[in-house]
Amino acid sequence: MKFEWRKQEKNLYLPKEKPDLITVPQQKFFMLSGKGNPNDEEFSEKIGVLYSLAYAVRMMPKQGYTPDGYFEYTVYPLEGIWDLTEEGKQSNILNKDELLYNIMIRQPDFVTQEVVNKAFENVRKKKTHPLLDDVTFETMEDGLSVQMMHIGSYDDEPQSFEQMKKFIKENNLEITTLKHREIYISDARKTEKSKLKTVLRYMVSHR
Prior knowledge:
This is GyrI-like small molecule binding domain-containing protein. This protein is an alpha+beta fold. It contains 6 helices and 7 strands.
């Protein structure tokens, strides 16, 4: 049976359209960091590199190598942790050129450093990519978090963040970092803005 995150990990990837408190376990990611407007060409390039590595892991058995503990699964969605430069934080309006980000694609638990090395090797064989050497493989744990599903344009996210902040306050919680995570359930290239699904998440602690 194929492991599908949409079915088996609904609580993490398909929350309701209202804030909820969850605990996010430790997860492994291919990751790339950067600064600037996500509408720029470089951002798309980075997404492409992450997906080529994610699919290299997924397709390994077809390349004649099956990692220990491998199982059939659907490739995880793109995620991003977002922040602003000091200059960006001073501004009253969002200047997308001042955005700082870490974009990433989660990997199944069976992925070890050895599997990662093989994935890089397989991607390099197909084509050399200047950004490949900037990709890191890291483990992260969001832990206690408040999240909700945002439906609509990325530019309308502040309305959902306001709902989340209200929930956080009402439940005696506080945000531990002003960075937030976004998980892109929809493909922005194929989905009209009003129907985009994005999981928004703040890491929190009890007051």
